[in-house]
Amino acid sequence: MSTDGARRPEEKQRGPVVLRRERRNEPTTTDQRLLDSRGPSDWVHTDPWRVMRIQAEFVEGFGMLAELPRAVTVFGSARTPRDHPEYAQGRALGTALAEAGFAVITGGGPGVMEAANKGCSDAGGLSVGLGIELPFEQGLNDWVDLGINFRYFFARKTMFVKYSQAFVCLPGGFGTLDELFEALTLVQTKKVTKFPVVLLGSEYWGGLYDWIATTVLGAGKVGEKDLALLHLTDDVDDAVKIVQDAWRAWEEAH
After folding, report:
1. How far apart (Å, rounded) are the C-alpha atoms in residues 170 and 199?
2. Rg of the chain, C-alpha, whole Å
3. Alpha-helical regions (H) of the chain
4. Which residues contact 179 (CB under 8 A, 6 or more apart)?
5. Scanning 124, 171, 195, 220, which has the fewest C-beta atoms within 10 Å of its C-beta?
């Protein structure tokens, strides 16, 4: 009986799940379904099973990257050809970061990502690639020394943020913009601290920076401190100095 005197509905326990009324009428138990090798295999595509895959991606990522040295994530377009000046700049950035003692993390793909990985690898640094399952990109580039392929963007993004001390964004498309603004949001809301975000290439990024500085700031949607989270430069050495200064400030605070 319930506290108000009414009869409690019949129920069935399925682990932590409570099934009442018509929902409790199941022809088999969870153990029985687990041990029965017959029947359809659709269950491997269900949401509860996906949770296990998601958990596995986090465990694998945390396990592989836990002892990663200080690192910087470089974002940029997968569509940048090897003979483009932005590719050369990405390669120079990878080299400069490695020489400054940072591992380089990218999305592991072609274009600017490949360039940064190659520059880092050529300079003897640790070159890391966090790939993603996409219908139009194939595997990790040849200059990744340590790599993981992810199914889920959100698991991959967690690794970028957790194991980086800074983001440097070269010209890129929607993916780069997504990663840029997510990083800014995390820094603005203090989910991560002492985390510089550098835009490398004023000709490409200048219009976006000006729009934020005039329209967005002018409308009161961000503050002056928020705008200061972004660093716009054309110089690889300047980008590396911004990263180094932020790292030293973090070390002094800890």
Report:
1. 6
2. 24
3. 30-35, 47-65, 85-99, 112-122, 153-162, 174-188, 202-211, 217-218, 224-227, 236-253
4. 75, 157, 160, 167, 169
5. 220
Task: Look at the block and give the residue holding tokens 């967005």.
Answer: 216
The residue type of 41 is: S
Q: Are strands 17-20 and 167-169 parallel, antiparallel or unpaired?
A: unpaired
| One-letter amino acid of 227 | L
Ordered mean pLDDT values, 10 residues apiece, the chain (254 residues): 63 61 68 64 75 91 94 97 98 98 96 98 97 78 93 93 96 96 93 90 98 97 95 98 90 77
Burial class, 167, CB count within 10 angstroms (exposed 0-12 / middle 13-18 / buried 19+): buried
Q: For residue 156, what are its two tokens?
A: 């991959």
Helix (H), strand (E), coil (C) string for 142-209: CCCCEEEEECCHHHHHHHHHHCCCCEEECCCCHHHHHHHHHHHHHHHCCCCCCCCEEEECHHHHHHHH
CA distance 220 to 214: 10
Q: How far is CA 134 from CA 56, 63, 149, 178, 183, in A?
A: 19, 24, 10, 16, 22
Rounded Cα–Cα distance for residues 165 and 145 (Å): 19
Task: Select from 115, 110, 112, 75 the least CA-distant residue to 91.
Answer: 115
Secondary structure (3-state) at 70: coil
